[in-house]
Amino acid sequence: MEAESSRDVGSSARRMTLVDGLRGFAALAVVLPHAAGLFMFPGAGALSELMVQVALFGRRGVEVFFALSGFVIAFTLRRTRLSPGGVGNFILRRSMRLDPPYWVAIALFCGFLLLRTVMTGKPAGFPSGMQLLTHLLYLQDLLGYGQINVAFWTLCVEFQFYLSFAVLLGLAQALSRRLGRDGLVPWFFSALFVPLLAWPSGLVPVETKAVTMSLLPHAYIFLSGALTWWALEGRLPRGIWYAFILLLWGVFLWLPDSRTFAAAATCSILYVAGRRQRLYTWLSPRPFQYLGRISYSIYLVHVPLCLLLLSIRVRFAQPSDGVALAFLGAVLAASIAAAHLLYTRVEAPCVEWARRLKR
User: Fold this and answer.
1) What is the mean pLDDT of residues 180-195?
2) Mean model confidence pLDDT for the chain
C-alpha cells in the first residue's frame, strides 16, 4: 500500500518524514491482526488476550494508508494538468510503481501454498487462471473471484482510487478552466466528500462483501487526506477544513468505528504538522524512515510469513505467552527482512522507472 513518493520533485529534494514514518507504523500495525493466531490457544493468559485486542486494532493501519494516499496524491498532482493523456501517464506510472512487487508477492504466496502442501500433504489449492488474471488487473473482488492473499483487497481499492481521482481531477480542472475559476478543484471534491460520509455514518448500509471491498465505503478516507493537503496549501479555506474534520469526528461520535477514528486522527496529525512546519521533521529518525520506505513491501509479504510461522508454532512449540511473543518477534523480523529484499531487488528499481517516466 503505497502512494506516490512524498518527495517534492518540483521544488525540493526533501521527503515528508512524517508521511513516511506513519507509513512504517501502519505497515507494522497491519502485520499484527494476521499474527493474532499466535496468541489464541486454550488457557491463554491476560497478556495474550491483550495482544489479541491490540492486533485487532492494528487493522486500522489500512485506513492510515488510505488517508496518506489521498494526502500525497493531491500533493503530487498539485501542479499537473490532467488531460486524457495525462491521466493515462499517471496510471501507467502507478502500475510501473506497484505492479512488479505485487506480482512477486502473488508468486510468493503460491510458493507458500506449495510449501504447505509439502509439509501437510493437503492439496495446495492453487489459484485458477482466471483468478490470477483478475488479480493482475485488480478486479478479483469486483468480479467475485476472491483474494489469493487476504491483504490484497486494499490494493484493489487503492487502484480504484487512483483511477477515479485522476479522472475526476481532470474533469474538475476542465470545468474550472471553462468557468474561469482557478480554485474550483478543492470545492469540487468537497462537494463529493459530504455525501460519501453516508457510509461511515451508517446511513447507507454495507450489506455485501463486494461492496465492502470496493472504493465507495472507503472513498471518504482518501478524500479527507486530499482535502487536508489542499487546506495546508491554501486552496481550501481553513474554516472549511475545520468544518469537515469536525464533521468527521462527529460521525465517529455518532457511530463509533475505529476506521473513522483512524481517518480523522491521521488527517488531524497531518494538518497540525503542516501548520507547524513539521511535515519534514517529525518521525525523521532513520528507523522510522527505513520502515516507511519498505512499508509497501512489508504489506505485500507479511501474510504468508505469518501463516508459515503460525503453522510452525502449532507443530513444534507448546503454547504460552512467552512463546507467542517470541514468534511475533520472529514474524516481524522475517517480514522486515523479506520486505528489504523485495524493496531493494524489485520495488526500488520500479520507483526509479516511474520517476523517469514522470520527468
Assistant:
1) 93
2) 92
Q: Using CA atoms, how far apart are residues 313 and 284, in angstroms rounded to an integer?
A: 36
Residue 285 near residue 266, CB atoms below 8 Å: no
**pTM, two decimal places:** 0.95
**pLDDT tens column, 209-267:** 556 778 999 999 999 999 999 999 999 999 999 999 999 999 999 999 999 999 999 99
> From CA 281, how far away is CA 285, in angstroms rounded?
9
248 and 264 Cβ atoms separated by less than 8 Å: yes
Beta bridge partners of 15: 7
* Backbone CA torsion sign across 95, 1, 258, 248: negative
Residue by residue, DSSP assigns 311-356 as HHHHHHS---HHHHHHHHHHHHHHHHHHHHHHIIIIIHHHHHHHHH
Single out the residue of 151, 61, 59 nearest to residue 108, CA to CA. Answer: 151
Residue whose C-alpha cell reads 454495507 in the numeric block: 206
Specify the 3-state DSSP secondary structure of 218. Answer: helix
Q: Say what angle helices 17-34 and 295-316 make with each other, to 10 degrees.
A: 20
Q: What residues does each domain of the chain span? A: 17-358
pLDDT interval class at 11 (50, 70, 90): very low
Task: Name the residue with cell 509497501.
Answer: 296
DSSP state of 151: G
